[in-house]
Amino acid sequence: MQSFLPLINIPVSAPHQAINLLPANTQIREIRVFLESVLEEKAQRKRFDQVLKSLLQAEFLRVQEERIFHQQVKCTISDEKTCRVCKKKMGNSAFARYPNGVVVHYFCCKDRGVCPTEQ
Ligand SMILES: [Zn+2]
Known about the structure:
The chain is mainly alpha-helical. It has helices spanning 15-20, 32-71, and strands at residues 95-97, 103-105.
């Protein structure tokens, strides 16, 4: 039991550090409880990571679906189209389109979340 004393304050999350401190003649049965707790901790962590991975994958797919939905919207910029902020023609400038269809110059788009016509 004396070989366990150095292990008491070492977290289970760093078992390799604890194992490195063990004398070479340590018997497995002497550290069985420790090894079981390490394996259980690793198994719990793996299950948690699998659940997290699945949740992130579902969120990724949801965002992809939303992106595809928004990219399907057709936006035609004609020669007469003007920016709703500065009132100048759009020309060949980069532009931003709000979900309500309002089109502005990209540099006139100060807040992506708030349409300038709705302020
Ligand atoms: Zn503008």
